[in-house]
Amino acid sequence: MTESNKSRRRGDQLQHDIYAATYRLLETEGYSAINFSRIAREANTSRSVVYRYWDTPFDLVFAAVQQRMQQSEEEFKNLDFDRGSLRDHLIYVGQHFILESNHGPFRLFKMLFSEMINQQERERTGQMLAEATASNIKIMDNVLQRAVQRGEITIFPPKATKLILFEQIRYTYMLENGWVSHQKLEEIVDHVVLPAILYFSKP
């Protein structure tokens, strides 16, 4: 790409290309490969352009992971939730979350979390985790609202119960070195998540 072409790229497209280069390097070579010179070369732009948007490589990775998390939330909103029962909905959401854990922002988030080196970075990553938790609750509220409408439950469970599905998948994902089988997901739903939700609707 010539300098004139570089200069014509602006705004969202340029940022998209920089993020895409960051994702590729994170997934193929890891966090240690991230530096502004390499990112600029991979994104066909100049290092000064990258510096214009972000102060440090951590800032760039943080922004890239956050952007991927927002994309993931939008994808969840577009899922077909007409699955017939609360159990089916929970398994469906779990399957999508497992897919995201293997190929989406959660995998990148783990890299970012392991590279935190100072208090400010820990605070910012904690903020991102809080945003992910809020997104998980929105997804579960959607599922639970449909269960209320079908008469499967009468009230919403507390926040901790809403998060059990996601937390159990994350725990299993780390314990099993990045693998959560369908059988394991069904066990999580049938023996942990569903009984916990139904407990709060007992007559």
TrEMBL record:
Residues 35-54 bind DNA. Pfam families: TetR_N. InterPro entries: Homeodomain-like_sf (IPR009057), HTH-type_TetR-like_transc_reg (IPR050109), HTH_TetR (IPR001647), Tet_transcr_reg_TetR-rel_C_sf (IPR036271). Residues 12-72 form the HTH tetR-type domain. It comes from the Bacteria. Keywords: DNA-binding. This is TetR/AcrR family transcriptional regulator.
